[in-house]
């Protein structure tokens, strides 16, 4: 008799368990990152006089623009290619742990906004591999979220969100971005 | 005696349950979207005479091209940066719910085809955040599928497919794209 | 008495099972690809004299560059748009199974490195649909991994890694890339 009652209890439990495992994966997803990292990268744009130090250059511009001075209208239409050092702190002269490589395009006439497609390429003792990013960067916001769209090596199949913050901005030649990477898919 | 038999039954059940939870996630994936949305966006390309209304501009072109007229050979090589209003219906003058920002490149000599990298950036009462897209756009097809490669804010970690349809095309200055977004990964 | 003991055993089992189903999905992910494919694609860059055969063209360049000759400094800043035939073997003249369409940007001054955003667009009896790629391509490495960031049609919602190998390189006009695609998310 007691055995029968416990049996019933167990079947109820099993049913409940079975339902909970059938819930779509979506419901069980957690927004706790599986990996978090902070990096800084440093962009020195070519202005006609800094060929040696420049890490980026204008390679496309609208009719009214040119290749050495970011154009008016909030640089709308300027396309910049970059190969920027990545550091662990905000010091341009710290030993780089990798390179941020890709492009950004200023894409709005009435406010500073850019679209980014780039990778963090690591080659340090700590990390090997790459993280790929894409997304809109409304520069005037204190923080901007872009997507981690994939990764290789140590970051195999990564997905997540990166939060960009302008950490320094000097004239139209140098800027430094703090990048808080939160991965929500790790393999 | 009865207790033993029920014990056996329960173990069999447990084994079965255990197997079913081990099935690879892939098999349980459904192609039913977790979110579907329809938007329109409107592109007015700069042609030298419409600086005020233009929402996009040619910023790269092949040797035989220029920055104010889309080039011959099906515009092959023309790179266009855009910041286009997004509306809920097909009226250019409806209140925008966000901006479509990024670029397209015409990339085929013998037919109209483009490659797109852009974001929908929302800032309405209904939606905050961004959806990031990439993919090939064979313009002459009635419908073309591109990838939703990520999202932020309300669209945190989104993935899916967007179907583009040319809803209007006026000369080489204005076009309107209907965009049916189906997300299959929602968080 | 025996029934009680077995009850305890079952509850322990249930607890264990319940814990194991709560393990983050990440742990159960396998690095065995769900689909593997090998393709070659062929790039013939426009140099001012090969308009008929060229499959790609320079459409952006830094101040010191131009649109018909890849620039010095390891082509830093040259942006190339391409529409390249995809073949199943390494023969340029084999029947194409699709087109590789998109762009690459040389993005480093002291070594050949590029950033790629492109799609494989298939239209063969074997495959319909597209695979979208993004990532850094450090050309001097024998193999380079980029991300499969999405797919459509036969490759609906695909994610994975593609390994690029330079299979041939002739002057600065022709190159052939072997592309080993491994998908780890198939739907």
Offer a quick outline of the entry.
Chain A is mostly beta strands and about 190 residues long.
Descriptive tags:
homotrimer; 187 residues; mainly beta; AOC barrel-like; eight-stranded antiparallel beta barrel; 9 strands; 47% strand; elongated
Question: How does this model look, in words?
Answer:
Chains A, B, C: It is found in: Secreted, Extracellular space, Apoplast. Chain A is mainly beta and 187 residues long. The first copy, chain A, has one domain: Allene oxide cyclase-like (AOC barrel-like), CATH 2.40.480. Chain A has helices at residues 2-22, 25-28, and strands spanning 35-44, 56-60, 79-87, 98-106, 114-123, 128-137, 144-153, 159-170, 174-185. In chain A, strands 1-3-4-5-6-7-8-9 form an 8-stranded antiparallel beta barrel. Residues 18-26 of chain A have low confidence and may be disordered. Chains A and B meet through helix 1, strand 6, strand 7 and strand 8 of A and helix 1, strand 2, strand 3, strand 4 and strand 5 of B.
Q: Would you give the CATH topology of chain A?
A: AOC barrel-like
| Radius of gyration of chain A over all CA atoms, rounded | 23 Å
SS element count, helices of chain A: 2
Helix content of chain A: 10-25%
Shape of chain A: elongated
Say what oligomer this is.
homotrimer
- Give the biggest sheet of chain A: 8 strands, antiparallel, barrel
Please report the distance between the alpha carbons of the first and last residues of chain A: 49 Å
Largest interface: A-C, 49 and 45 residues
**Overall pLDDT confidence of chain A:** 89
Structural class of chain A: mainly beta
CATH class of chain A equals Mainly Beta
Write the CATH architecture name of chain A: Beta Barrel
* Pattern of helices and strands of chain A: HHEEEEEEEEE
Number of domains of chain A: 1
**What strand order characterises the main sheet of chain A?**
1-3-4-5-6-7-8-9
Poorly predicted ranges of chain A: 18-26
């Amino acid at each position: 008799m007691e055995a029968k009652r416990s049996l019933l209890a167990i079947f109820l439990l099993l049913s409940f368990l079975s339902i909970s495992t059938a819930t779509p994966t979506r419901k069980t997803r957690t927004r706790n990152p599986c990996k978090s990292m902070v990096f800084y990268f440093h962009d020195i744009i070519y202005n006609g006089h800094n060929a040696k130090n420049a890490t980026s250059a204008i390679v496309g511009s609208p009719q009214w623009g040119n290749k050495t001075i970011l154009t008016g209208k909030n640089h709308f239409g300027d396309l910049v290619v970059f190969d920027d050092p990545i550091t662990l702190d905000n010091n341009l002269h710290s030993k780089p742990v990798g390179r941020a490589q890709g492009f950004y395009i200023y894409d709005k006439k009435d406010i500073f906004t850019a679209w980014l497609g780039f990778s963090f390429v690591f080659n340090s003792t700590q990390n090997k591999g790459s993280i790929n990013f894409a997304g809109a960067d409304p520069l005037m916001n204190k923080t901007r979220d872009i997507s981690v769209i994939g990764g290789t090596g140590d970051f195999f199949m990564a997905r997540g969100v990166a939060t960009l913050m302008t950490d320094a901005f000097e004239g139209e030649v140098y800027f430094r971005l703090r990048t808080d990477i939160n991965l929500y898919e790790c393999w």
